[in-house]
Design goal:
Elements: H1 5-31, H2 34-55, H3 61-79, H4 87-99, H5 113-120, H6 127-137, H7 143-150, H8 154-171, H9 183-202, H10 213-229, H11 234-247, H12 273-288, H13 294-307, H14 316-329, H15 333-346, H16 349-357, H17 367-379, H18 383-396, H19 400-411
Length: 413
């Protein structure tokens, strides 16, 4: 059955969001070339827009894309001026195509995402480039989404991604999971990657929805794999706990129409008790090891929220104390912003305004800062100033659902 162009484009886009990392990692596993794999997969997606509209969806959409991407890679290698140098790679692809004349089933596509994470997080790359490249290749985030996560310009981030791919090729960085001796040095970057992927799903920077559950699920799945690889590592446990505790609120964070619901307005009966129980157990086990790192501390803060029956009953002083410890480890403006929000509930919105005023220059372009400042101004009775800050937060938001929520805040003042 022929698909309307709009429906076909939506189908392809949804598949990209869901399967990009798995398909790309499989291609990189066979090609050992980041750029060739990404270009070939993009070629396959463009073919899908044409063929699926005319012929309908194939039995295995992911398998069709993988097989088509391999054939596109062969075409690109044939056109390459260095064809002779690529002959071994070409032969391997031909053999692969001969062995699998039919598109593979979705479940039979090799999953090499863990190798991809550690390749992207190799010490030869700058830490920022490691995280950005993994977000692009594994999570399928756009360059604009990654730039926003780093508070960078999109053009600068695009150049960073190109340089990272070039360095992997030039340095011959291996496509492997590191052994036990090399694993710790790359762990911090890997955890940072997973947390940024989770955050993009938890509060999407673009698109029609505020939540992208598939990204949250992917980050949690990969964190579980890391935990299985190194079960005694407290920061892996802390990150997994943090993501589980945050994700436990997913059913209460938006209504049937997809509109945002603030923490204070959420029906806590909708929070997932099994995830809360698992998250609290993990963070307690991690903290008992005596090496409280930033993910464990954030998980402990989230656990305090999870245990509270209401916003008013939350142990806010304990949260402020945890942020004080966190600031000793990471004295950055975003942590100070989050601490100030906790102060606004532990003491008063006026007390928080004093702390927020010192962050204005450092966080002038950071949307959550203006949203938090607006909320504290509103609760302090400074409605004109609050309206201006809500307006600034709306300008800086790339998500329509978030903008709707902030506009509703203004209308209720």
């Amino acid at each position: 059955m022929e698909l309307p162009p709009e429906a076909n484009a939506q189908t392809v886009n949804a598949l990209v969001r869901r399967e990009w990392g798995r398909l790309l990692s499989s291609l990189i596993g066979s090609l050992r070339d980041f750029q060739l794999a990404e270009d070939s997969l993009q070629d396959a997606l463009e073919s899908a827009l044409i063929h699926w509209q005319r012929s309908g969806l194939p039995r295995s959409p992911s398998g069709w894309l993988l097989q088509t991407a391999r054939r596109k890679a062969i075409d690109r290698i044939r056109r390459n001026k260095n064809f002779e140098r690529k002959s071994a790679e070409y032969a391997a692809l031909i053999t692969m195509e001969q062995d699998a004349p039919e598109p593979p089933e979705d479940h039979s596509i090799p999953d090499e995402r863990l190798r991809l994470i550690f390749t992207c997080c190799h010490p030869a790359l700058e830490e920022k480039s490691r995280i950005a490249l993994t977000l692009r290749t594994l999570g399928g985030l756009t360059t604009r989404e990654i730039a926003r996560a780093f508070l960078d310009k999109e053009e600068a981030m695009a150049q960073r991604l190109v340089r990272a791919k070039q360095k992997i090729a030039a340095a011959g960085i291996p496509y492997v999971v590191p052994d036990a001796e090399a694993l710790p040095e790359r762990l911090a970057s890997v955890l940072g990657v997973l947390y940024l992927i989770f955050n993009e799903g938890y509060a999407a920077t673009s698109g029609d929805t505020y939540l992208r559950h598939s990204l949250c699920e992917e980050a949690i799945r990969l964190a579980r794999i890391l935990h299985a690889l190194q079960p005694g590592e407290p920061e892996i446990m802390g990150l997994l706990a943090l993501m589980l505790l945050h994700d436990s609120r997913r059913s209460a964070r938006s209504n049937m129409e997809g509109h945002m619901i603030a923490l204070e307005d959420q029906d806590r009966r909708l929070w997932h008790a099994d995830q809360i129980a698992e998250g609290i157990e993990l963070v307690e086990q991690a903290l008992a090891l005596g090496h409280a790192g930033p993910y464990q501390l954030q998980a402990a803060i989230s656990a305090v929220h999870a245990e509270a029956p209401s916003l008013e009953a939350t142990r806010w002083e304990e949260i402020v104390g945890l942020y004080d410890i966190f600031l000793q480890q990471q004295p950055n403006p975003v942590v100070r912003l989050n601490r100030a929000v906790a102060v606004s509930f532990a003491h008063s919105a006026e007390a928080a305004l004093t702390e927020l005023s010192s962050l204005n220059s450092e966080l002038a372009g950071y949307q959550p800062f203006h949203a938090a400042l607006a909320d504290c101004l509103r609760r302090s009775g400074l409605l004109k100033e609050a309206q201006a800050e809500y307006g600034r937060a709306i300008e800086l938001s790339g998500n329509p659902r978030e903008r709707e929520y902030l506009a509703l805040r203004i209308s209720k003042m």
